[in-house]
Amino acid sequence: MNIRAKSFVAALAVAAAFNVSAFNAPAWAHAFLDHAVPAVGSSVQGAPRELTLNFTENIAPAFSGVTLASAAGGAIAKGKARVDPSSPATLHVSIGRKLAPGTYVVRWHVVSVDTHHTSGSYKFTVAP
Hints:
Helix content is 17%, strand content 41%. It has 1 helix and 8 strands, in the order H-E-E-E-E-E-E-E-E. The chain has one helix at residues 3-24; strands at residues 33-37, 43-45, 50-55, 65-70, 82-84, 87-94, 102-111, 117-127. The strands form 2 sheets. The protein has a 4-stranded antiparallel sheet with strand order 1-3-6-5, with no helix packed on it. A 4-stranded mixed sheet has the order 2-8-7-4, with no helix packed on it. Strand 7 and strand 8 (117-127) form a beta hairpin.
């Protein structure tokens, strides 16, 4: 193998090592949903008056929000999501009306304070 071929192979090895480490590294700086009230997948007795979503990182309120919909997709009126000043990783959302028994879908999107965007959804059920 000549020098040029050895250099090419070495460059490929460095690039491969970078790709493996860059794409397999955990995304520690992203805010993911840690827990919520009502809890993910739960069935609750009585309609909740508020959603509380706790994330793994502090979030930027200006770029974070929540939607609430019925299982059929109908939007449910709710208040504006607000970050808890004493816990900047927590979003509170007032529900604008009493929820009827049924399944509801919460969709969230947040930007962590280090500007990484994440989103997700979960369901909970209000028992009859």
